[in-house]
Structure formats: C-alpha cells, structure tokens
Amino acid sequence: MPMALIAPSILSANFLNMEADINMINNSEADWFHLDVMDGRFVPNITFGMPVIAAMKAKAKKTFDVHLMIVEPEKYIEGFAKAGADVLSVHYEASTHLHRNLQIIKANGMKAGVAMNPHTPIELLADLIEDIDVVCLMSVNPGFGGQKFIERTYHKIRTLKQMIVERGASTLIEIDGGVTLQNAGLLIKDGADVLVAGNTVFSSPDPADTIKKLKEIGK
Ligand SMILES: O=C(CO)[C@H](O)[C@H](O)COP(=O)(O)O
User: Which residues are annotated as active site (predicted)?
Assistant: First the structure.
C-alpha cells in the first residue's frame, strides 16, 4: 500500500499552549500542518486567520496546508501567501471563478487546492483536474472537528482517483474529517494521498505516537 502524508489538524490542538503542539508536530512523523480558517459565514464557526498563521509559521518546520472555509476567498489569497501558506485550498462552493483562484494561488507561489463539501459531486472537477495540486475531500460537513466520517467518501475517492489516473494528472487526494486509526487503511487503499487528523491525534494520550501509527498504516 502506498504511504500517505499525515496532516494533523491544528483545530484540535491546545490553543493555550500552541507552541508545545507545534513542537510535537515538528518532532513527529507528521508531514504537514493542516490549518482550518473559518469565517462564520461559509461555515457556522470562526477560528483564526493570517496573524495567527504567521506566528505559528515562525516556529513550525513543516508544510503549511491552509484550508480556507471562507466566502470570497479570492480577497485573501495574497495575504495567506504572506502569512506562510504552502498549500492553499479554497472551497469549490465558495469560488465563483475557481480556475482564476487556482491561477492566483499559483502566482503567489503556493500549491493550489480545491476543497469540496460532502454533497458536491466530484465530477464537477472534470474540466480543471490537471490544474489542481490537491483536492481536499470533506468527509464531514465543514466547521467542526471530532465529527463522524461520512461513508460515501470512499466512493468519491475511487471516482476521483480514476479521473486523476485517466487524465495523467498529479493531483493529490486529501481526506479531511473523521479520519481514524480504523478507517485510515481503507482510505489509503482507495486512493487517499493525504490524511488530515484532528481529534484522532489530539484526543489520544500520546499524539506523536498516534501520528506514527497513522503513518505506519500505509506501509
Ligand atoms: O476541516 C475540518 C473541519 O471543518 C477539520 O480539519 C476536520 O474536522 C478534522 O478534524 P477531525 O479529524 O477531528 O474530524
């Protein structure tokens, strides 16, 4: 089985002692930091924005994977590049001009991601799959950590993988929401390249060891 990249979701970290969790991720087998930006409009929750990400970037030693759950993401692409995003995902549902958003993300030196809500058909990406570096498939309704994985996601991963292979694209498939030590193997088998994990990592007694176990599942 191919190995997946592991991206602990900062949403579930200890906001009162973020430096400790950043160091834990730095010293763990994690590949990316996953950072959820929520605006209280696209999703019913508000998290953090550019100043917090810039502060974290000064301490973090791994790729910053920033997931914008915001309306009008085009207004903030340059700002998140300056804050330190390496991968920037905008939502399909929040992008009137998705192709243009991808171009702006790349022009600002970042990898371009598209996040999709659970109800959005994957086939809608058919005309721009070659232009997408990462598809972030939401496997819960966005807005909160610790939710139950939506089983239909497996089917979406397989459909998306087939599209990517048929078109010769190099797009990575990222799964976000409800990832556990129990379902990680099936997700990777079906084609997931990146696993986001919040609750599974940070609610465990030994988060670094849980990251190691997630990493080992793909081996
Ligand atoms: O995008 C998100 C929520 O909108 C989070 O990244 C996602 O929920 C991960 O958290 P968990 O692993 O606890 O489900």
Answer: 36, 176
Residue list, ligand 1 pocket, CB within 6 Å: 9, 11-12, 34, 36, 67, 140, 142-147, 176-179, 196-200
Helix (H) or strand (E) holding 35: strand 32-38
Give the tokens for residue 79: 């700002």
d(CA 112, CA 131): 8
Number of domains in the chain: 1
**CATH number of the domain bearing residue 14:** 3.20.20.70
> pTM of the entire structure?
0.98
State ipTM.
0.96
Per the CB < 8 A criterion, the answer to whether 101 and 77 are in contact is: yes
Give the pLDDT band of residue 2 (cuts 50, 70, 90).
confident
